[in-house]
Amino acid sequence: xxxxxxxxxxxxxxxxxxxxxxxxxxxxxxxxxxxxxxxxxxxxxxxxxxxxxxxxxxxxxxxxxxxxx
Length: 69
Hints:
mainly beta; SH3 type barrels; 5-stranded antiparallel beta sheet; 1 helix; about 10% helix
């Protein structure tokens, strides 16, 4: 399933974020996705603040999540 604008996604830890995080897709480019970070590990609070709650990541590092069962 392709990631669309407005989807909730779970991001893997990477060079910037030390733990997984949850965010909402703001914009989708060819292979990268612009994410608004909604939930993150307490250890990443300063990083998220510096990023102004936004991160640009490769779409292969993300998985869509659903709030329904």
